[in-house]
Design goal:
With about 160 residues, the chain is of the alpha+beta class. It is about 60% helix and about 15% strand. The protein has helices at about 1-35, 70-90, 95-115, 135-159; strands at about 40-45, 50-55, 120-125, 130-135. Helix 1 (about 1-35) crosses helix 3 (about 95-115) and helix 2 runs antiparallel to helix 3.
């Protein structure tokens, strides 16, 4: 019976992580399949474009000239094991949700880095003179999860 308690306790984390990975990988597959249609960028709204970018570095293309994407993928997987450890020991739902989003994003980008040796970025946002570098669903999962986790940590310290 203890196994069923563990499964129920971890089910939400498993579903969020898997959903994040699957949506990320499907979106990147579709963008790669139709990349010719994304040059020039496809305007969805005045502030949102779909583009095709091969990011061989870390966030915002940093370190891309060093061609270390495969190793960054391995680091993503090592970090994922630590996140799994944190997930296993977490008790609060918001903490589990945030860590699951971070885990899904890390695995999603890690898969790209190990298989392709680059990450496909395709969401391009700009407002007036502000232009954010292209990103993907995995990046979004990591960002939202990171914000939630930071918020959880702040609330935990204040109580």
């Amino acid at each position: 019976m203890k196994i069923f308690e563990t499964i129920n306790k971890e089910f939400l984390a498993f579903v969020i992580t898997c959903f994040s990975i699957i949506i990320d990988q499907i979106s990147k597959y579709l963008v790669a399949l139709y990349k010719a249609s994304l040059y020039p960028p496809l305007e969805i709204f005045s502030w949102l474009n779909l583009v095709y970018v091969e990011n061989k570095g870390i966030s915002f293309g940093i370190l891309s000239k060093f061609n270390i994407s495969f190793y960054l993928g391995l680091v993503s997987f090592l970090i994922s094991f630590y996140i799994i450890y944190l997930l296993k020991n977490s008790q609060k739902s918001i903490e589990k949700i945030s860590l699951s989003l971070i885990l899904g994003g890390a695995i999603g980008n890690g898969i790209d880095r190990v298989i392709r040796e680059y990450v496909i970025d395709f969401i391009d946002i700009s407002l007036n003179n502000f232009h954010w570098p292209a990103f993907n669903i995995a990046d979004s999962s990591i960002t939202v999860g990171g914000i939630l986790y930071f918020w959880f940590i702040l609330l935990k310290k204040n109580h």
